[in-house]
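Entry for glutathione complex. Fields follow.
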Amino acid sequence: MAQNDRLSLAGAPGSPYTRKMIAALRYRHIPYSVFWGSGNIPEGYPEPKVRLLPTFFFPDGEDGALVPVTDSTPIIRRLEAEHAGRALIPDDPALKFLNDLIEDYGDEWLTKAMFHFRWAHEADWKNAGPLLIYWGMNTAPAQMANQFAADITKRQIDRLYVVGSNEVTASIIEVSFERLIGILDTLIQRRGFVLGARPSSADFAIYGQLTQLAIVDPTSADLVNRLSPRVRAWVDLLEDLSGLQPKPDDWFTADEAREALAPLLEEIGRTYAPAMLANAKALQAGEDTFTTQICGEVWTQPSFKYQGKCLGWLREDYAALSGNVRGAVDAMLAGSGCAPLFD
Ligand SMILES: N[C@@H](CCC(=O)N[C@@H](CS)C(=O)NCC(=O)O)C(=O)O
């Protein structure tokens, strides 16, 4: 049943978090077996409680029985502890904190762009519907696949509001995505990755979303191609970094980080920060939806418990910073719009 020498997971090529994790496993030289689609999990594997992709199967049960585990961010940290070398999390505490923040921006904000671009424009949903079916059921007869594609397309379009995408916010999402591509173009040009000359979990979070935005979905893929062939090429490189030989001094120094990351932190402060803050406030007040201003427009969406948890983890990280480090981090966050997250 289980291939115990390998870490197994169920995922999908169209799932940004699956792509984040597979690329991270390759870079880290951690052997894995991936099952494409929750419908293709082999017999004998436990059924996940929530069918989130990716689902990992860790030998956490009695006598090493497999247990389904989800959520890429904590899984990356667990794998850091279980496998030595080729770390994705910098040792330097200030850089580590920035990595956690940028990773969460990739996972929790950039994913809005991913979902929006895929389902808001006709050319994109016509493209994505059948892919979603064939990624999980590649031998399905075309007629059946087309019917399933139509069903899932309708369901996803009806769920656009869940990530905050609507006619008012469409331009906020699209313009912020264009800004991000410009910022990444300049950042990557420095030393190849978000935090220096070696990849961090923040790179893989952004990469995961871009496997879709820059390649699969035609409207956003055209944008990326046009705005930055460098970023488009970066996505291909991140897929397999098994040959990169990272060195301890490949991370940015404090001075480099301060200068290099300022535009990205400002972008995070413009979009992710107000959304995460308003979400946390609504959750605290027991409200089902939150409304805030992002880039001068009204942003309304259902409040989201998991993102409340993410902000809680970041605040714990921040609280654990020692005085000196906190001072350095505060100096970087000042004026970026991110500081209120940690007030
Ligand atoms: N926080 C999770 C997010 C995973 C996630 O949202 N997966 C999506 C696919 S990319 C999913 O399985 N969605 C199914 C659903 O929401 O029903 C992680 O980091 O892995």
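NOTE: The beta strands are 7-11, 32-36, 55-58, 67-70, 289-294, 297-302.
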